[in-house]
Amino acid sequence: MQGGYRNKQDLNYEAKPVLSVITIVYNGSGFIERTIKSVVNQSYKNIEYIIIDGASKDNTLEIVKRYEENIALWISEKDKGIYDAMNKGLQLAKGDYVIFMNAGDQFHNETTVKRIFTTNANADIYYGDTLIVDDEGRSLGPRRLRPPEKLTWKSFRMGMLVCHQSFIVKRTLAPLYDLNYKIAADIDWCIKCMKQAKTLENVHFYIANYLSGGASWQNQKKALNERFNIMKKHYGIVSVISSHMAIVARFAVQKIQGGKMTN
């Protein structure tokens, strides 16, 4: 099942760059509308919006259809997990850049995308800060791991310093996600993107409001194991042992304190 204006005709965007925003959702009726509104209400209009629904059993699709005239393409079908769904979105995207803004996540405000491309209209990657929010959209403060002033592919040795929802990459540099990873494939994907990028632009403001409580924090032990294997692949065993000890300690402290991990 699918819909959206691309089924009838492509929208002729007035200028470049065009940003493909991809939303992955499954049974997200409680959160999907806030995400849709944050995308379709952007002051920057060169946005191609794609929604990949995993055959939701609640009224997610009914909500999506309300905004169909503002959605380039939506599909609703079973998938093999979140990264399989993300790959579908990447393969459907036609924009110059891509970003994932999943159900419950939002652009920080209505001028976010416009400000990003005003900074530099031709960077390979744009990145910025992330605000953590609860189920009601209330601020829980900035993400504990903050973006470095200068980001490189080596920066992630100490963890995912930039949230996936605050990471915009040229579509031609974006590979498909490795489906061998079930929880932390986004880290592997971001590193691969950065390895190919020549210019990484720090926008120095919030890009996304991130809904606390993602899959990796609900499966912390498995996430740590996947992260270790990903870092070992990219950085080597010696480097990853020392850095991963610090990451494990960070998890332990957070658990003792009784707080939620916020990536």
Automatic annotation (TrEMBL):
Gene3D superfamilies: Spore Coat Polysaccharide Biosynthesis Protein SpsA, Chain A. The keyword tRNA-binding does not apply. One of its GO terms (molecular function) is hexosyltransferase activity. InterPro entries: Glyco_trans_2-like, Nucleotide-diphossugar_trans. It holds the Pfam family Glycos_transf_2. Keywords: Transferase. This is Glycosyl transferase.
